[in-house]
Amino acid sequence: MASSMLSLGSTSLLPREISKDKLKLGTSGSNPFLKAKSFSRVTMAVAVTPSRFEGITMAPPDPILGVSEAFKADTNEMKLNLGVGAYRTEELQPYVLNVVKKAENLMLERGDNKEYLPIEGLAAFNKATAELLFGAGHPVIKEQRVATIQGLSGTGSLRVAAALIERYFPGAKVVISSPTWGNHKNIFNDAKVPWSEYRYYDPKTIGLDFEGMIADIKDAPEGSFILLHGCAHNPTGIDPTPEQWVKIADVIQEKNHIPFFDVAYQGFASGSLDEDAASVRLFAERGMEFFVAQSYSKNLGLYAERIGAINVVCSSADAATRVKSQLKRIARPMYSNPPVHGARIVANVVGDPTMFGEWKAEMEMMAGRIKTVRQELYDSLVSKDKSGKDWSFILKQIGMFSFTGLNKAQSDNMTNKWHVYMTKDGRISLAGLSMAKCEYLADAIIDSYHNVS
Amino acid sequence: MTTEFSSSSSSSSPSDRRIGALLRHLTAGSDSDNLSSVYASPTSGATGGSVFAHLVQAPEDPILGVTVAYNKDPSPVKLNLGVGAYRTEEGKPLVLNVVRKAEQQLINDRTRIKEYLPIVGLVEFNKLSAKLILGADSPAIRENRVTTVECLSGTGSLRVGGEFLAKHYHQKTIYITQPTWGNHPKIFTLAGLTVKTYRYYDPSTRGLNFQGLLEDLGAAPPGSIVLLHACAHNPTGVDPTIQQWEQIRQLMRSKGLMPFFDSAYQGFASGSLDTDAKPIRMFVADGGECLVAQSYAKNMGLYGERVGALSIVCKSSDVAGRVESQLKLVIRPMYSSPPIHGASIVAVILRDRNLFNEWTLELKAMADRIISMRKQLFEALRTRGTPGDWSHIIKQIGMFTFTGLNPAQVSYMTKEYHIYMTSDGRISMAGLSSKTVPHLADAIHAVATKTV
Questions:
Q1: What are the residues whose beta carbons fall under 8 Å from the beta carbon of A75, sequence distance 6 or more?
Q2: In this structure, which CATH number among 3.90.226.10, 3.40.50.1970, 3.30.700.30, 3.40.640.10 belongs to the domain A116-351?
Q3: How close A382 gets to chain B, by Cα (Å)?
Q4: DSSP result, B389-408
Q5: Cross-chain residue pair B186–A333, CB shorter than 8 Å
Q6: For this structure, is A21 an active site residue?
Q7: Does an H or E element contain B153, and which?
Q8: B47 pLDDT above the threshold of 70
Q9: Residue span of the signal peptide, if any (chain A) (predicted)?
Q10: A371 catalytic residue (yes or no)
Q11: Do A339 and B223 touch (CB under 8 A)?
């Protein structure tokens, strides 16, 4: 490697070997700015300009993803990871769907190329994803009123939509449930979209505060965006009933709000793709204009492939065309065009009737395992807890997660004493629970609930 | 689909601000004479109109839109010299053999899973990428002063780097070359930076305006960020010499300007990975800090997989650790974590000596074919006696040639010869073959000899 040339004068250049202990680059706030003038080729280790990033502080670990990191570091053999929502088998192993492996083999055999996708993503995927969501024959699709672009799973789709809101609905607020998925706020913050909350979770009933929800949606300034979880609310697992969904649609229409669905669990909540899309389809029936962010992370197990979509239902095909063009304008300076691999997998699976049938079966299996483990956990709690506490909320909740009602201190106890890893809001991922571990978990929950405040 | 022309119902938006936005967009320029039908479906929303009424049709992206237009053209002699994607001599896209091998290996590995990557991406990929660009013996790596995060190809790396700087760096202005890749200004503006330009291309010499470059960078406020194309400048193909790079480095370090390298063509420009990384390594060798955005779209042919990396070289490993933690805060609300497939392919290839060597051979073959196309085109114009100095075709480096043609000439070539390129006169040599060179030469000859 060429040695750097030192110029006599004002420039301060470092010789090659910089030993860390010779440099006083600390965080104590001192300013080690020593210029060096070298008169010979003897290189001296001297400190020169401080780092431009010196003032940067260490960010805290992500509250959700950080849980898995902490779990990995734990050496206790009883440890249990109920943090991130990633499906595990009964043996607590990650699961790649058989139909996904099939699709990937097909793709490799076919020798698909790796050309750039268009900015809006893979056309076959976009078609399939909208049809999955609304149903193939649905008027919104027949009338070409849905603007769909492939996105980077749920997060990426939400972010692109948020950027559209910031640009074209300046000042409009997004109203999000209290609580909601931890990353929602970050997404809207970074997109510079203001947000506020509507009441959702009632800790007294460990159920839905429906009146609070309706009141707060009503209170929001007209034309606000209302963030709704299509099914399997994250983190609570508490979904409105069909009747409640009707009332939610009513109040949203009354206030000319714009619904914004986050659909990360279609097919995963009940086991049925159609059933889990009921809330979205209800709003489509009403002729409303709204946003839907989709993710295939969980229902097709494609977590790391980052495959999802943003759909915008518009009142006309013309509006949909224009909206799509503006979504593209946002995606281009963010990542240019989306990754092809996950999109191809989805398109292949959905496009082939046999594979589609196989997918549905595997999805039912996954959803079924979670329902079974819910029941087992409930049974363990009821048999072990002599206090008479009502644990039935566990059975009423739906989807990957359960909101245990444990507070932060209690959640900490779960981790510190029992090596059960979960998020501080009391959320546990049932997808990470096995039948074999239900009793242990029940013990941990009972202990944390009764003995810690 | 039937089209109906009906006036959309007015005052559809419930709030003043939307009407305001609507007015702004109407005056900003109308959309095409397209259909503007509003379906009055029985289940229309309460307001009767659309909340999106004020959104106009955005024009196609100037670069990617070229392919859109090309696809629509039915002419049998059409030629796509727009986007920089490599084509074989037969005009076909190319998936490298070594990439297919890597994919087969991945599929055969029964232990592979699709769990979320960490926010920073595939760790092994990150380490190998840093080594590739900085050199395996780089002191910055040895001293643990580099943080590398997997991003969505070059664009994603630039965007994440830009957002990080906008949040944490004291100077919010970035200087980009005049001209530069069309997407650069948009990326950095949306990232939250102010974009300014520095002189780069000299149309009269079709070379580097080095004096102008030094003046403009010299006049930049201390600490400003400067975007540098590591090699194979896009769109001009004009690179500084090593001596010029050294002068640029000294000037920048003396003013504390922050280098932000865009490396999209490592190995593709000269055929040598190390040669193409030299400017970056020169900067790192002086112990200073810099950012580097890497893309594997071209050099590994992984375009659609969106594989890239952002490396930030810091003064100390402590700083690098803190910087990494803040990069994660930029990434998480953007897309949570990056895609696994492309990065896995790269890791398989870079970690295996045989595959790596095979890759360098395939890479050199692509670079050589492009150099050969340059020679053929130059020769073809010489044979036709096309007026003007066309030596820049063989002097410029990388995938593109900045022809020097103006938008009117470009338009003519598209209309009459069905040759597609960006309106700045940039052509992708990667899209040429021996068979199509004559057609292109005819077109260039035509516009060079007539007033268009």
A1: none
A2: 3.40.640.10
A3: 33
A4: --THHHHS-SSEEE----HH
A5: yes
A6: no
A7: helix B153-168
A8: no
A9: none
A10: no
A11: no
Q: What is the ipTM of this complex?
A: 0.88
Contact assessment for residue A16 and residue B285, using Cβ atoms and an 8 Å cutoff: yes
In chain B, the residue whose alpha carbon lies closest to the alpha carbon of A188 is B333
Assess whether pLDDT exceeds 60 at residue B72: yes
pLDDT tens for residues A352-411? Answer: 999 999 999 999 999 999 999 999 999 999 999 999 999 999 999 999 999 999 999 999
φ and ψ at residue A329, rounded to 5 degrees:
-65, -25
Look at A139 and B41 and tell me if their CB atoms are within 8 Å.
Answer: yes
Sheet arrangement for strand B225-229: B146-152, B307-313, B290-295, B258-263, B225-229, B173-178, B194-199
**Residue A22: pLDDT over 70:** no
- Write down the catalytic residue from A209, A216, A239, A262: A262
Q: Are A131 and A123 in contact (CB under 8 A)?
A: no
Among residues B101, B216, B239, B262, which one is catalytic? B262
Contact (CB<8Å) A27/B318 = yes
Q: Which two tokens stand for residue B309?
A: 């990396």
Where in chain A is CATH 3.40.640.10?
A: 116-351
3-class secondary structure for A288-310?
CCEEEEEECCCCCCCHHHCCEEE
For residue A14, give the nearest of B187, B286, B319 by CB distance. Answer: B286
Interface test with B, best of A25, A290, A295, A322 (most B CBs within 10 A): A322
Question: B41 to chain A: which residues are within 8 Å by CB?
Answer: 139, 143, 287, 315
Q: Which residues of B touch A303 (CB under 8 A)?
A: 114-116
Q: A49: which chain B residues are within 8 Å (Cβ-Cβ)?
A: 256, 288, 315
Residue B305: C-alpha distances to residues A3, B296, B345 (Å)? 38, 9, 10
Spatial distance between the Cα atoms of A293 and A312, rounded to a whole number of angstroms? 9
Contact residues for A140 (Cβ-Cβ < 8 A; gap 6+): A134, A146, A284, A313
Do residues A222 and A193 touch, judged by C-beta distance below 8 A?
no
Residues linked to residue B420 through DSSP beta bridges, in sequence order: B80
List, for residues A337-353, the tens digit of each pLDDT value. Answer: 999 999 999 999 999 99
Q: Is B359 a catalytic residue?
A: no
Residue entry with tokens 């909601």:
A180
Cα(B228)–Cα(B279) distance, integer angstroms:
10
Closest alpha carbon to A119 in B119, B342, B93, B62: B62
A11 CB neighbours in chain B (<8 A) are 250, 253-254
Q: Would you say residue B43 has pLDDT above 60?
A: no
Q: What is the dihedral of CA A75, A80, A81, A85, to 10 degrees?
A: 170
Which chain B residues have a beta carbon less than 8 Å from that of A223? 13-15, 18, 51
Q: Is the dihedral of CA A61, A62, A64, A68 positive or negative?
A: negative
Q: According to the model, what pLDDT value does residue B15 have?
A: 52
| C-alpha pair distances (Å), B250 with each of B178, B203, B217 | 21, 26, 11
Q: How far is A290 from chain B (nearest CA, A)?
A: 9
- Cα separation of B202 and A363, whole Å? 60
pLDDT in tens, B175-230: 999 999 999 999 999 999 999 999 999 999 899 999 999 999 999 999 999 999 99
356-395 of B, contacting A, C-beta below 8 A: none
Does B451 reach chain A within 8 Å, measured CB to CB? Answer: no
**What is the sign of the dihedral through the CA atoms of A97, A102, A106 and A108?**
positive
Burial class (CB in 10 A: 0-12, 13-18, 19+), A135: middle
> What's the confidence (pLDDT) of residue A38?
42
Q: Which domains does chain B have, with CATH numbers?
A: 63-94+367-449 (3.90.1150.10), 116-351 (3.40.640.10)
**Is CATH 3.90.1150.10 what the domain over A63-96+357-451 is classified as, yes or no?**
yes
Chain-chain contact of B342 with A105 (C-beta, under 8 angstroms): no
